[in-house]
Model the fold of this input.
Amino acid sequence: MIKILVLNGPNLNMLGKREPALYGAETLDSIIQGLRKLAGTLGVELEHMQSNEEGVLVSQIQAGREKFDGIILNPAAFTHTSVALRDALQSVTVPCVEVHLTNTSAREEFRHVSLTAGACLGQIMGFGAMGYHLALTGLVQYLKSGRGPGINQ
Done:
């Protein structure tokens, strides 16, 4: 069975409360619940973790190299600042899809550059919670195609 790690970065635990005009009213728990349903239909095992701490996310990526076939990562604000997350992604052979709820390229200029996207298989942004579903579907198809280095196929 394909195993996917979903990692969410800082402040995403505040979804539904934080800037609902920008991020919507849906909570992170609700997003993950919907993603788990999709994972079930795809025959995929999903593990989720959210942290406001950069080092915790780095450790999860590193630990996931022998446990997961793929990673879905919303690094949130760390997207634009974290060389450590990029280095962690580059240190493992696990394919990663970066997800953002909003189109960061259409927002403030400091959000236009992703330090992590270059270490990822792909990036999905601007589709709200549906972006996680698109990432999971695409990542699973990629892994099943045999192109990915997944461990459990």
Notes: The CA atoms of residues 83 and 115 lie 7 Å apart. The two ends are 6 Å apart (CA to CA).
